[in-house]
Specification:
Blueprint: H1 2-31, E1 43-50, E2 57-63, E3 72-73, E4 76-77, E5 79-81
Antiparallel strand pairs: 1-2, 1-5, 3-4
The structure holds zinc ion.
Length: 87
């Protein structure tokens, strides 16, 4: 009878230990900061974006190739607008 109890205690400690280790791993994964982006590393562009939710438009004059996701508006990524040069 006592043997089974001890087994339960050991299993509980092991289970608790693994849950604790897993939690630490998840916290470390979540707290890892995103890779550093050099704010000087920009490329000059002339790209228009339109918000598909409210219709707002903006023109990007410079983009960083390391962080080339489209800007967000109304919590949605804006869609690029291509305007052929009229010259
Ligand atoms: Zn918007």
């Amino acid at each position: 009878m006592t043997g089974i109890l001890w087994l339960d205690v050991i299993l509980a400690i092991l289970l608790g230990y693994f849950i604790w280790r897993a939690s630490i791993a998840v916290i470390q994964m979540l707290s890892t900061p995103p890779p550093e982006v050099d704010p000087e590393n920009v490329v000059e562009v002339d790209q228009d974006y339109k918000c598909s939710v409210c219709g707002a438009e903006l023109t990007m004059k410079a983009v960083n190739p390391e962080e080339d996701k489209p800007p967000k508006h109304c919590r949605e990524e804006m869609v690029p607008v291509w305007r052929p040069q009229t010259s």
